[in-house]
Write a structure and sequence with these properties.
alpha+beta, DUF1759, 4-stranded antiparallel sheet, extended, 25 helices, 6-stranded mixed β-barrel, Peptidase_aspartic_dom_sf
């Protein structure tokens, strides 16, 4: 071929090469390039480049044959080099992307779990926090792919506003040129090695001074070890290692230790060889403290290891009760050679609280109290051990007899209390009905959102609440969704504050039952507004209202749950003028949403006491069985013949169990349930199970666990643990079930539990017909006693 034909062929090859290269470049510009498609295009462009290079070689050889073609060869060579450079660049980019994809794939295959998101540590300007802050931020600082414009923005986010660190960073305008200056200034102010060394050494010195002042008689050794270890590690990170500065740090650490630990340390050194006695390295001292901490933790485990979590909490609570705050801890005196400690202890029970507040003293006789006072040489008036009663300046007046002595020293407090109890009215909520019922302002309103479904909601008017709230149950009935949220903190009765909670915001249209008045309100979501709010059920009150021609909306509704609370932001526009007092003591108020009742309703003593007796009797009849009062088995006395018959019956059931067990061809086991008799009268239980199933589904749906619960049964069906049956053609017994959730479980977080004790009225349950087996709990004492017979190696 001549040069013209070869150039025509090269032109077509270059056009094809350019089209393929353009496709590769477009794919590489995407945020998530398709690596598989790039691999295909790479193979295509390699083939095109090979053919193009072959054609270019032939053209070059023909041009070089002409002796006067130097200029033409140079132009042709430069044109060909552009395609070679473009091919090399595209291949390198594809290879780099493929390697990155391979590394990501291998890393994702190794890790099958999702790591939590790491938040950027905030720096306040405290030099003690600089090392931990810089260890995290240095990754951003050393990343060359992040421009300085972004780095300085990250730096601004990494400092706490209105602190020393924020003032240093904000003193530089947020530009790329100022980022290195801001970092240098931060290091100069807070990250100098000499400054950090001074801080940690002074911390060690402060621990020495604290030990010298208090003596650390009762120190928390694990906490002390952790504190020392943290400071030594911080010094090592600054280059002050134990090898170079151990001789300087070792005396400081020893001075921080309490006396008993120092004695044990010297004793352990003396037990070594004479050649090693003078070796006082810091490393060996820290290893010794580490072993002491391990030993103390093992001792603590031996003391509390057999306590249940509930008992351990009770023990901790009891210890806290003894630590009453007292002003005596602020005084450092020396009274009767006792360094002021007698003022901290109660003279009656020797616990740490004021003697006048002692609960045990209230149960002691007067003679016992006098003995305690004389024994401790205390004052009879104020119980202080610093003076006698004739020098006491405290003027007491007894609460019972008004005589000049403390009420704990009164001779006849019980008689006085008994006399007062006749005139004091007491309300008790334990197994009794209160004499006075106080009714809150409740009514029924219609609630709708835009033009959606309208529901009736029991509403509470509460001017003590700043805002209005709607319950989660009412939101589900409306079927509405919120687009806005708000974070709030609630102030409760007694001044207690709750943690910040997130509430959904809804716009609702509220109207009266006759729709004569309506208003639009903004409410916040709440899981449950309040507990049970009683309704007016007294026939006398209802008849009095009917005579006046007044119908309360809250009487006809059966729902007792409060679904809506209207606070002070709404109630001001609802109440109208005028109120009427009824004969029962209640007040009838008129609102724009209807009439409401509020106030205290007085009930006669006779009626109240009858209700109380009926409540107590019903509780005892429900929870107790009369026959069990004469059962000797309840106190552990059994008939030997009955015990022998039970053992024989148990052996018989075990034998029948073994004989009925079969191994199916698929490897599963099939066996019969151990029924008590051959005649099985097992009811269907279908209606009862269906009712419980509906309630369980509603409850699980509200908790957001219904889909997970369904997935468990679907998995069981796939594993052939359960299977569907034809209930119409076979005799069936239905068992209700419910989910049991264990969030801390690794394998099964939710599992079904079947209620084999469920039964309809007058019929047997599955558990009633099955053999129970022996009571293995009775064998636990025998097993525990056998542990002491032999030596445990």
């Amino acid at each position: 071929m001549d040069v013209t034909q070869l150039k025509t062929q090269r032109k077509a090859l270059r056009t094809s090469f350019t089209i393929c290269a353009k496709s590769i470049e477009d794919e590489l510009m995407k945020e998530a390039p398709n690596v598989s498609q790039l691999s295909i295009w790479k193979a295509q462009i390699e083939d095109k480049f090979t053919r193009l290079e072959k054609c270019q070689t032939e053209i070059t050889n023909l041009i070089l044959k002409d002796t006067d073609a130097e200029r033409a060869f140079e132009e042709d060579f430069l044109s060909a080099e552009k395609y070679r450079d473009r091919f090399s660049e595209l291949c390198a980019q594809i290879q780099r992307l493929s390697m990155k994809e391979t590394e990501t794939k291998e890393f994702s295959e190794k890790r099958k779990f999702k790591l939590p998101k790491i938040e950027l540590k905030k720096f306040t300007g405290d030099a003690k926090e600089y090392l931990s802050f810089w260890s995290q931020f240095s990754k951003i600082h050393e990343d060359t792919s992040i421009p300085n414009e972004d780095k300085i923005q990250y730096l601004l986010q990494a400092v706490v506003p209105k602190t020393k660190a924020a003032r240093v960073v904000e003193s530089f305008p947020a530009t790329a040129e100022n980022y290195p200056k801001a970092i240098a200034q931060l290091k100069e102010r807070f990250g100098r090695d000499d400054l950090l060394v001074q801080i940690y050494v002074r911390d060690l010195l402060s621990m020495v001074m604290k030990n010298a002042a208090s003596g650390r008689t009762k120190t928390d050794l694990p906490a002390l070890y952790d504190e020392l270890e943290a400071k030594i590690r911080a010094l090592e990170s600054l280059g002050r290692t134990q090898e170079k500065y151990g001789d300087f740090l070792s005396p400081l650490v020893e001075s921080c230790l309490p006396e008993e630990i120092l004695v044990a340390w010297e004793r352990s050194r003396n037990m070594k060889d004479v050649s090693q006695v003078e070796d006082r390295s810091l490393e060996k001292l820290m290893n010794f403290l580490k072993q002491e901490v391990k030993g103390e933790e093992m001792v603590e485990l031996a003391r509390t290891g057999f306590l249940s979590p509930a008992n351990q909490k009770k023990k901790e609570a009891a210890n806290k009760l003894d630590n009453y705050p007292t002003a005596a801890t602020l005084v450092s005196t020396n009274i009767r050679n006792n360094t002021g400690k007698r003022n901290l202890l109660c003279i009656f029970c020797n616990k740490k609280h004021p003697s006048k507040d002692c609960l045990e003293a209230r149960n002691m006789s007067i003679d016992e109290k006098k003995k305690c006072i004389l024994k401790n040489r205390a004052c009879f008036c104020c119980f202080s051990v610093t003076h006698f009663s004739k020098f006491c300046k405290v003027k007491n007046s007894c609460l019972y007899c008004a005589k000049p002595h403390h009420y704990l020293m009164c001779d006849h407090p019980k008689e006085n209390i008994k006399q007062r109890s006749d005139i004091i009215e007491t309300n008790s909520l334990s197994n009794s009905c209160s004499k006075n019922n106080v009714f809150l302002i409740t009514l029924i309103v219609k609630v709708c959102a835009e033009k959606d479904k309208v529901i009736q909601v029991r509403t509470l008017l509460d001017s003590g609440s700043q805002y209005s709230y709607i319950s989660k149950h009412a939101i589900e009935k409306l079927g509405i969704k919120s687009n806005n949220k708000i974070k709030m903190q609630h102030m409760l009765f007694g001044g207690r504050e709750t943690q910040s909670q997130i509430h959904d915001i809804y716009e609702l249209l509220i109207s009266s039952m006759d729709e004569s008045y309506s208003l639009r309100v903004k409410v916040f979501s709440e899981d449950k507004i309040c507990g049970t709010v009683p309704k007016v059920s007294n026939p006398t009150v209802i008849n009095e209202l009917s005579k006046k021609g007044i119908i309360l909306s809250d009487l006809a509704n059966e729902d007792c749950e409060i679904g809506l609370l209207l606070g002070a932001d709404v109630t001001g526009m609802l109440f109208m003028e005028g109120s009427v007092k009824l004969d029962s003591g209640l007040f009838l108020l008129k609102t724009r949403l209807g009439f409401v009742l509020t106030g205290r309703q007085e009930v006669s003593d006779k009626c109240n006491r009858c209700d109380t007796v009926l409540n107590v009797i019903s509780l005892f009849v429900k929870d107790s069985s009369i026959n069990e009062l004469w059962s000797l088995e309840n106190i552990g006395i059994f008939d030997p013949i009955q015990r022998l018959n039970e053992n024989n019956e148990h052996l018989k059931v075990i034998e029948e169990f073994k004989n009925s067990m079969k191994i199916l061809p698929d490897g599963r086991y099939e066996l019969c349930l151990p029924f008590k008799s051959d005649v099985i009268e097992l009811p269907s239980n279908k209606e009862l199970t269906w009712k419980r199933h509906k309630k369980m589904c509603e409850r699980t749906q509200r908790n957001g666990l219904l889909d997970d619960y369904k997935a468990v049964f679907k998995e069981w069906e796939e594993l052939k643990i359960i299977e569907k049956i034809d209930c119409e053609n076979e005799t069936s017994h239905f068992l209700p079930h419910r989910p049991v959730v264990k969030t801390d479980s690794i394998t099964t977080k939710i599992r079904p539990v079947f209620a084999a004790s469920a039964r309809e009225t007058g019929k047997n349950s599955l558990n009633d017909l099955l053999y129970k087996g022996p009571n293995l709990i009775e064998q636990i004492p025998q097993i525990s006693l056998r542990l002491g017979f032999e030596v445990i190696h």
